[in-house]
Specification:
Layout lengths: L7 H8 L7 H15 L16 H20 L13 E4 L2 E4 L15 H9 L9
Antiparallel strand pairs: 1-2
Helix pairs in contact: 1-3, 2-3, 3-4
Length: 129
């Protein structure tokens, strides 16, 4: 079973906007992105693989919410397809030009804010010595 690090209520608190109707799906996909970014991070977990340190729990929730926020801002629905298009419009904001996709197929397009949250929590870069 996939781990989901944030709830729709946490997403609402993070963005200041009501959670979208498909928030649980978006949070599940964003949690997968966070997991991919943390492939070599070391932290204590329970039997289900969920973090046990409250600071890490909060960092993963924040990073997951930041990932959903980023995907919504870039017009991605969590599938990763948005990075393949040239323009995105959200309300009065319009962006155009080829978006940089992840370096290789399978690489995670991690939101800059999610990266910073994980780095501040000491989870990135995840290097095993």
């Amino acid at each position: 079973m996939a781990r989901v690090y944030a709830t729709p209520e946490q997403l609402t608190a993070w963005t200041g906007q009501p959670a979208p109707p498909d928030a649980e799906r978006l949070l599940a996909r964003a949690s997968e992105d966070v997991d991919d970014a943390l492939i070599s991070a070391v932290y204590a977990t329970d039997a289900a693989g969920m973090p046990t340190d409250p600071a890490i729990v909060q960092a993963l929730a924040d990073a997951t919410c930041a990932q959903v926020e980023y995907q919504q801002a870039t017009g991605d629905d969590g599938t990763g397809a948005a990075g393949r298009w040239d323009s995105v419009s959200i309300g009065p904001v319009s962006l155009s030009g080829r978006a940089d996709a992840p370096a290789a197929a399978g690489d995670v397009d991690l939101a800059p804010r999610a990266y910073r949250v994980l780095r501040r929590a000491g989870l990135l870069p995840g290097v095993i010595w």
